Amino acid sequence: MELLIGIFFAGLLAFHWLERKFPPVIPEYKTGLKRRGYLADLTASLVNGPVLSAATKIAAYWVVVQFPALVSDGMSTWPWVLQLAVFLLVNDFARYWLHRWHHASPLLWRIHRVHHTVVEMDALSTFRVHILEAVIKYGVIVLPFHFLHVDTSIILLYSAVDVLKGFWHHANLKTYIGSLNYVFNSAELHWWHHSTEAKGQRSNYGSIFSVWDWLFGTLYYEKGRWPESIGVEGLENFPNTYHGLLTTVRYDDEEARTAYPEPGNVSEAVRPNNLEKESRSAVEIRSTVS
Questions:
Q1: Do 269 and 261 contact (CB within 8 A), yes or no?
Q2: How deeply is 153 buried, as exposed, middle or buried, from its count of CB atoms within 10 A (0-12, 13-18, 19+)?
Q3: pLDDT band at 149, cuts 50/70/90?
Q4: Residue 115: burial class (beta carbons within 10 Å; 0-12, 13-18, 19+)
Q5: C-alpha 12: how far from its chain's center?
Q6: From the CB of residue 278, how many other CB atoms can be counted at a distance below 10 Å?
Q7: Which runs of consecutive H residues, i.e. helices, occur in 105-250?
Q8: pLDDT at position 95
Q9: Which DSSP state fits 258?
Q10: Which residues sit opposite 259 in a β-bridge?
Q11: Which of 101, 191, 237, 253 could form a disulfide with 282 if both were Cys (CB 3.0 to 4.6 A apart)?
């Protein structure tokens, strides 16, 4: 855990330095403490990281004790390299589909939407994740590997890479990997996923590998071109506090647009539950899983 915390702070400082020294994707965006909602994302990084990791370990041990049949050698007898390969591929494949379902399901989208409402993206934006989404990801993907006794060093190594990958994907920093985009998910691809344009948000669900997007027809890539704006259209005035972000799941997109109006429209706004719903629901504007 100490190693991961060290990687977190070292990586964050490194990418914030790079964001100030090299060409940004969108020059107007602020980064660091000056960026809107930065403290909320920093809080999320602590809750979804060390705190949640400790909670899932406790839950794993409790389940194993309650169900002794789960206590066996499991993957622990496999060669380390094989454990790593299986963990990496299964984890990444599962994350692709889980991410895609978060965009396809109206209920899961309310949770995942928190991650997309950052309007000035920088490296720390990778941690703007609702606690419920973090719990689902840990419970569906990581916890089963604890039960299977995968070597803890593999989870530690993957987590370290995942943190650095997240910083890179979200940093306001232009980077290019060329033809490697056909194999790996890059910042180029992930910034399109955060684009306000629908064609972008319904694409590029992969975590480490872009192969899944190529295979299942969800990749969107324009060589050398980056999106002009990121976020969710009409939800630019989302809360800036950690607690405020957590409570947004009670609203669908149309209700949220009324609950968090643009400053110029505040006087015209009323609470969503007092409004007649528009005929086009959020379901109709979300993508569906093929």
A1: yes
A2: exposed
A3: confident
A4: buried
A5: 16
A6: 11
A7: 106-116, 131-137, 143-147, 152-170, 187-193, 198-201, 211-215, 242-246
A8: 96
A9: H
A10: none
A11: 253
> What 8-state DSSP symbol labels residue 204?
-
pLDDT for residue 35: 93
Region of residue 271 (phi > 0: left; psi between -120 and 50: alpha; otherwise: beta) = beta
More reliable by pLDDT, 129 or 289? 129
As a residue count, the chain comes to 290
Which tokens hold the place of 1?
């855990």
Q: Rounded to an integer, what distance in angstroms lies between the CA atom of residue 22 and that of residue 162?
A: 23
Secondary structure letter of residue 69 according to DSSP: G
From first CA to last CA, the distance across the chain in angstroms is 39
Burial label for 84, CB within 10 Å (0-12, 13-18, 19+), is: middle
- Share of residues in the chain with pLDDT > 90 (%): 60
Predicted pLDDT at 279: 34
pLDDT at 198: 75
pTM as predicted: 0.85
Residue 62 tokens read as 């409790």
Q: How far apart are alpha carbons 187 and 170 in whole angstroms?
A: 7
- Give the Cα separation of 218 and 287 in Å (integer): 11
pLDDT at residue number 264: 56
């505040």: which residue's tokens?
A: 266
Q: What is the pLDDT of residues 42-86, one digit of tens each?
A: 998 888 876 665 565 556 555 655 655 555 778 889 999 999 999
Q: Which long-range contacts (CB under 8 A, 24 or more apart) does 200-207 make?
A: 200/227, 201/103, 201/116, 201/232, 201/287, 202/103, 202/287, 205/96, 205/97, 205/99, 205/100, 205/103, 206/92, 206/95, 206/96, 206/99, 207/91, 207/92, 207/95, 207/96, 207/99, 207/162, 207/165
pLDDT of residue 269: 40
- Residue 230 β-bridge partners: 195
